[in-house]
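[recover] target loaded
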């Protein structure tokens, strides 16, 4: 179920329980913005979504979508069984630093080569993220990077009691 435009109505709703495991990556065309410190720090109309059972989509933006100087490499890394080793970034404006608010796979596993170097953002750590003009709700729990919009239905991994899902 590939989405190439902004959704038009309830008939286009997606359940995260219809997403695959292992996850898949697909292109997304629609305006995505990220705001921090009162500024739009990233904007693109061409991104990718990673879709995984029980998770709202995680959006990966081309590195070029970020304003100069807003990505600063942070210490540490993590491992995803599907995508490989993640590198973290602080998001930075003149007035605000969002520590480890973004990540990227510089050398992803073969099935995820299309997101090599693209950057995902934890919506909970920035002022606002939008998909096709809609303000997203961060995936619950503070660990996962999914973005919830009105056309995505759960329940979602990250809510209390979902650790074993």
């Amino acid at each position: 179920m590939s989405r190439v435009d902004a959704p038009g109505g309830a008939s286009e709703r997606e359940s995260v329980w219809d997403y695959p495991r292992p996850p898949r990556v697909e292109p997304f065309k629609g305006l995505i913005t990220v705001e921090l410190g009162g500024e739009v720090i990233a904007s693109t109309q061409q991104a990718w979504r990673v879709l995984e059972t029980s998770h709202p989509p995680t959006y990966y933006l081309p590195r070029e979508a970020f304003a100069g100087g807003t990505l600063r490499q942070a210490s540490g890394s993590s491992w995803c069984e599907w995508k490989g080793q993640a590198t973290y970034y602080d998001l930075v404006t003149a007035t605000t630093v969002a520590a480890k608010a973004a990540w990227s796979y510089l050398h992803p596993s073969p099935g995820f080569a299309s997101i090599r170097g693209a950057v995902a953002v934890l919506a909970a750590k920035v002022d606002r993220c939008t998909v096709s003009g809609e303000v997203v709700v961060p995936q619950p729990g503070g660990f996962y990077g999914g973005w919830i919009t009105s056309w995505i239905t759960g329940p979602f991994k990250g809510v209390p009691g979902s650790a074993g899902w």
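[recover] notes: The domain at 10-153 is CATH 2.170.150.40 (Metal Binding Protein, Guanine Nucleotide Exchange Factor; Chain A).
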